[in-house]
Design a protein that fits this description.
This protein is α+β, with helices and mostly antiparallel strands and 127 residues long. It contains two helices and four strands, in the order E-E-H-H-E-E. It has one domain: 6-pyruvoyl tetrahydropterin synthase/QueD (Tetrahydropterin Synthase, Chain A), CATH 3.30.479.
């Protein structure tokens, strides 16, 4: 079925450690970049021909990553059982985005979240 993919990006700075991974066992930080992409079916466009206001995606994403800003991610509750790898961060953001967008834009379904640790290294989590 024809559909649209809409994205917004946000950034945050935070530190983490990854136990058992050479060099990453030491505390270090990144300037993380995150992109959330949502899917809207063509039949779900509003009267103006919009799937979802980009600001809804943007506000959702910024609210989520604001909890990570200038934090040691290993100390945060979501990472008590799983270290804050780019993979786990992407999954967490996807889940929280889906939950928040269910009220703001129910026609939008989270399709993917991308997380960059550095400009060269990223993970893509597809829902």
């Amino acid at each position: 079925m024809p559909h649209y993919l809409l994205s917004a990006e946000a950034t945050f700075s935070a530190a983490h450690t990854i136990p058992g991974v050479h060099m990453c066992e030491r505390m270090h930080g990144h300037n993380w970049r995150v992109r959330a992409t949502v899917r809207v079916e063509e039949d779900d466009l509003d009267q103006n021909g919009m799937g979802v206001d980009f600001r809804s995606i943007d506000e959702t994403l910024r609210a989520i990553v604001s909890d990570f800003e200038h934090r040691y991610l290993n100390d945060l509750e979501p990472f008590k059982d799983n270290p804050p790898t780019a993979e786990w961060i992407a999954k967490l953001i996807a889940r929280q985005s889906a939950h928040r967008l269910a009220d703001l834009a129910p026609q939008a379904r989270v399709e993917a979240v991308e997380v960059w640790e550095t400009p060269q290294y990223r993970v893509l989590y597809r829902v």
